[in-house]
Amino acid sequence: MQLGADHVQVRVPATSANLGPGFDALGIALASYDVLDVRALASDEVVVDVEGEGAADVPRDETHLVVRALRAALEVAGAPQTGLHLSCVNRIPHGRGLGSSAAAVVAGIVAARALVADPSVLDDDATLRLASNLEGHPDNAAPAILGGATVAWGAGGAGARAVRLELHPDLCLTALVPSARLATSHARGVLPDRVPHADAAFNAGRSALLVEALSRRPDLLLDATEDRLHQGYRSDVMPTTYELVQSLRAEGVAATVSGAGPTVLVLCEAADADRVRAAAGALVGGISDWAVHPMAVDEHGVTARRVQEGSSR
Ligand SMILES: Nc1ncnc2c1ncn2[C@@H]1O[C@H](COP(=O)(O)OP(=O)(O)O)[C@@H](O)[C@H]1O
Ligand SMILES: N[C@@H](CCOP(=O)(O)O)C(=O)O
Fold first, then answer.
1. ipTM of predicted assembly, 2 dp
2. Which ranges of the sequence are coiled-coil (predicted)?
């Protein structure tokens, strides 16, 4: 297969995974975006420009995560590899539990989809399969692709699959974001290989309840976001995060660790948002280097468009 375009732009949302009990399964897309401009070059050169998050530390060569995902997707599509000029404007913070790596992977795959002549070979199902393989878990990639809230699951040899959930219109989200990073690989490394059956049963019930709470019964969010499978085990590698979650929950606020942390995601009903954000602000105000960000849900997921030469960038 040949390329069908040589210049595309991609916008991809941040995501918050797990949402408490839904470890490696539930996730939600947030209206904060990385934007990428991708040009196929006639030479085999790779040029990477980065503005914003990660500008000081991401690589500028073939090892850049977007380039790696884009190359993997061109291979899946049977399209030729090409030189690349990538210009990234990054707003999703790295290593905070807001899905920056999944966003980079999804953006790379969707850039390839927009570049190739037949995008159907990289449809949303194929994009999710490839992104989940590259990430190692599907719960960030699914909402980054589909938008809204999603349930993702591994379907054996068929790879990852996902469905979107209906979201109650009164759902309000707030992120408490620290300046310190924690690599997801590190936070996954502290999880045990085995958990008590009672804890697995507890999380199964809460995850099922959370689907109902997110869709129809936001009054149940506090009970529905309880977790026994990952947050406690990770408390030593993110003590401030864990304390914030515990303090907020003690005040009746549905706080969870966002993804693998260290960001805290708070879910509430619109009518309770002022109280919840005041409580979060009061707690975070006493700690340096944390910020409170009201977040909207992204409903669209990743978007891409081919750029006609001569049109504005
Ligand atoms: N836009 C990006 N461009 C290049 N690399 C990225 C980008 N976003 C994330 N990464 C890579 O992923 C790492 C963060 O991934 P991870 O530890 O999974 O945290 P997060 O919770 O932010 O996904 C960064 O340190 C960087 O290596
Ligand atoms: N289920 C994963 C989610 C990781 O999300 P991230 O945004 O921290 O990459 C986990 O909890 O490890």
1. 0.99
2. none
